[in-house]
Amino acid sequence: xxxxxxxxxxxxxxxxxxxxxxxxxxxxxxxxxxxxxxxxxxxxxxxxxxxxxxxxxxxxxxxxxxxxxxxxxxxxxxxxxxxxxxxxxxxxxxxxxxxxxxxxxxxxxxxxxxxxxxxxxxxxxxxxxxxxxxxxxxxxxxxxxxxxxxxxxxxxxxxxxxxxxxxxxxxxxxxxxxxxxxxxxxxxxxxxxxxxxxxxxxxxxxxxxxxxxxxxxxxxxxxxxxxxxxxxxxxxxxxxxxxxxxxxxxxxxxxxxxxxxxxxxxxxxxxxxxxxxxxxxxxxxxxxxxxxxxxxxxxxxxxxxxxxxxxxxxxxxxxxxxxxxxxxxxxxxxxxxxxxxxxxxxxxxxxxxxxxxxxxxxxxxxxxxxxxxxxxxxxxxxxxxxxxxxxxxxxxxxxxxxxxxxxxxxxx
Length: 412
Known about the structure:
By secondary structure, this protein is an alpha/beta fold. The protein is built from twelve helices and 17 strands. Helix 3 (about 85-100) runs parallel beside helix 9 (about 290-305) and helix 10 packs parallel to helix 12. The radius of gyration is 23 Å and the shape is globular. It starts with about 30 loop residues before the first strand and ends with a helix.
């Protein structure tokens, strides 16, 4: 008699898509892009105020990025970090010249940049003779990535559920509550990990005073201050990095998204002191810092770091914020308030944010939902004042439609 064969996961009869179904995707695709616009295969044009979730800093098909990528593609694509990569030296030096940093580690994503930052903080204390200092204090509502360590750092249950015990080493406290931070300090504390502006959390800002108090606590107790500027960095707030408008400097900073303008690039920036434990063999990446990524990243930074470019971001964002505030004032039953800085803005909604996001797509405007019932507006940094005004008009039309629907329901 034959022995029954136990069923395996691969024998499941449940249907599954060729691409793992971990995304709730909109039923739309795009064939090409031009600046701040995306075009479908049938020619429909959408004003892109999502920018690939704050990634396409220079919009779509930017000629300087195309030139940089094409030129490098004709040379060498990948050699690994077994050898010197000249493009890494050039981009690292550019970042060092423009920021607080003394050294840079290149990765492929924001989550990887955060992993490097977390490891660096722990290694710093181990190298200083205090391996017991491995915990980072993080903040409620944060989002730091999708790896096991970064979901633990964010502390949001919806991202932790089903993945077993959370990776140890993270303690969450309320944002902008310095008393809670002080109460959380222990002999195991290694430092603080914070987004100056929470993106996924709903465009919630850390106050300048709170950030300065964190810096003072870090200095007082020999701790490290780590900034997650994966979303807020590379000109998004009107400054190259958000910390540069806060009057302090971090010890470590994670950056990604806009740094590659659409090409996968991440980086961990650090002072020489913070990085002292990161010796050969302590960390690495096969693809991190590959020549293609470095060429594109350098081209992005050459553009975004220009004072005139950042001034234009601040000018356009001022116009955009003004228009959005007027909409919130006119439709208080739809929009509660406008949040954020630069071109990292959020509409705190009264009605479900997903309803507004869907309605805006119907008007040809792409946005991104966030926590705390917020719709994020993250356009390419190259948008014009006319394009900002166009977006405001579309948002106003949606709010007018929703307000009318609410009025009809009330009367009924």
